[in-house]
Amino acid sequence: MNTPRPEMRTSLILLLMLMAGSTPVRLEAEVPALAEHPSSAKPLRILPLGDSITRGSYLAQKNGRASGLPNPEAGGYRKPLQDLLRAEGIAFDFVGGLNYAAFGKDGIVDPLFDADHHGLAGFSNTGILNGGTVPTPQDVLDSLGVKLVSVPGIVEVLKQHPPDVILLLSGANGFNAPARDHLIRTLGKHSQAHLFVSTILPQKPPRTGWDKVDAYNASLPSIVAEQQRKGHQITLVDLHAAITTDDLLPDGVHPTKTGMAKMADVWFAALKQSLQHPAAGK
Known about the structure:
282 residues, alpha/beta, Rossmann fold, two-stranded antiparallel ribbon
């Protein structure tokens, strides 16, 4: 919701929607339209789906340990994307089963930040598809009164948090393209949402497997084209082209604040194009 809830949700759900448009998003390109959701319509239900890059890194510390408390650096690309949507007058409602890793300070979520998302730290494509236990900071577990947090598989997540739009960014954990393709097909079968699926960001040492990124991304257009031929609303977004290794934290995988802002710009351009071209085909 645009007004974040005061407490964490206990029903965490998984939402990974891998589907794509036939060509990477460019400002001059025509993309499939969100025909039923012009800017004047009801709020656009947006599901940010993926791993820790969607969640946002935990930069807050409590007693020397990473925490889930709201902090000025949290929220991943979601905070700058919401700022862009709001400035454009596009009504939105972010959805998902998680709402920690929130933007704010002193443990209080910023009232203008919709903290809902479904960024599952450490999850592979298979993990997003099937669900499982989500690595969760101890302060979040304490606030929920639980010892662990588990999420259901993607099909159940789609039922619990039906979106109009899915922003899928996954695969940095494992680089499993066949699992990604299976996930995309599952999303297409169980949701009518417009899927915006992106290439993954570049990586660098010391991140293990950083050299597998290009091959993983190169295999994405074929599944996008397949789903498009079947009539699914799917758009391919190229975040990889917008981010350089200079936009990464020292771990070699997560984006800096500058990198997150660049990501938001690309997602926003894709969404705005689709809203502005209601006559565009699937």
